[in-house]
Amino acid sequence: MWRSAAKYLLNNRIYRNGMQKLLTGQNALCYPLQEVPFQGCRQHTPAALKINMLISAVQQVEAFDKQRCITVHWEDGSHSLYPYVWLRDNCQCPQCFLPSAKARKLPIKDLDVNISAEKVILTDSKISVIWPDQHISEFDPNWLKTRCFAQSTREQKQKDLFLTDRQNWGSELQIPSASFEEVLNNDEVAYQWLCALRKIGFVRLKHAPTEKGQVAKLGKRIGYLRLTFYGLTWQVEDKIDANNVAYTSGDLSLHTDYPALHHPPGVQFLHCMKQAEVGGESEMVDGFHVANLLRQLNPEAFRILTSVLVDFTDTGVDYCNFSLQSKHRIIDLDHNGRVVQINFNNATRDSVFDMPVEQVHPYLSALKDFVDLMYKPENMVTFKMEAGDILTFDNWRILHGRRSYSSTNGYTRHLEGAYANWDETMSRLRCLEQALYGNK
Ligand code: OGA
Ligand code: NM2
Ligand code: ZN
Ligand code: ZN
Asked: pTM of the predicted model, to two decimals?
């Protein structure tokens, strides 16, 4: 029967999955124009590389019935705990797991949450667990190591999966830029584009053809675009009877797009095909940076904007007729209190204001303080798009604005825009990383 703290043979085997080269390829970093591209990418080690560098040699495995877990002692002196129930839940055998889909077959109803291992065997390449019903689960030490439950391992793994490390910026930002053509045709450049889009939140692509259809190509590069009531792509022009303030020649104050949706688009593309002669400058602000400044400078305003829900509305006809209503906190925090999303377009903020009357003044004054902070010159980047530029930015993080322009007959400013989701964008980033720098 089971011996508690049974010790198994020492194993000197070192597991390596073929080390991958760092970002040293010819196109890994390019410096088109005088701008500095991809600061976000330079320090970024591909997640797969980090995993490959783990040398998961097991020295010893112990099984503890009391704690209902096994302890794996690694050769570097560290150790990891793995609960029996998790090991059974994650059995990789073909009965419990479908390798072609990399998905679990074992349903929770068949999982004995109080299960104990009958035997744990360490061979030179794997850890085998024999369960009381003689079912055998085999685990690769590398696979186990990357799933270690230690907080530091989990934190690193989550950072690698979701690229949550951001680089704050203000007016000093050197706008990351890349060639549109290279993003489409070179995987390393595409990978670095997406890394910078994640880390800095904003990348300008240069020299796109000045005709419609280019943002659709970016959508294809990622996978697909996000359809909204404004269409799969949309034309930003001065329109008669505009169904959105964006479709006028007026000023657009700093905003994120489409808070009238409960799940606003994560990524936005704006392609300039024709720029106005006078006006039409762009303004960009790092909303996470400004929100964190507000937290320090005006904690009460920060508390209000991170807790009170406001209504947004958008009604009209475009792709088809629509009547949207939503509620958002202007600043969304995660469970750790970190800023994760800004939802703010003053044009679509509803006049229906769902709060006790005495909260109206404090609310609007908190909002004004936040907006005033955004417009401080040290927090804002101002520039004028040129025909052929495509701004790509994190619409959950960056607030963007446009100065009014003069619209003259026969010479109209014309942008084409489109949205993508962050899920699909991050998926493309991970697939590119995998293809370029190896296995996960
Ligand atoms: C928009 C927008 C910016 C511009 O259409 O939502 O922000 O420069 N446009 O016209
Ligand atoms: N457009 C540009 O929130 C918004 O209404 C932003 C959306 C019309 C697709 C503008
Ligand atoms: Zn199994
Ligand atoms: Zn916009």
From this structure: 0.88
